[in-house]
Amino acid sequence: MENHIVIDATDLVLGRMASVVAKRLLNG
Question: How far apart are CA 20 and CA 12, in angstroms?
Fold first, then answer.
């Protein structure tokens, strides 16, 4: 159960990072 939570948290962080990078590329 804890591993699943950790994976979800990692996915959230990676998703946010990807969104920030995508926005920079689109705006840049």
Answer: 12
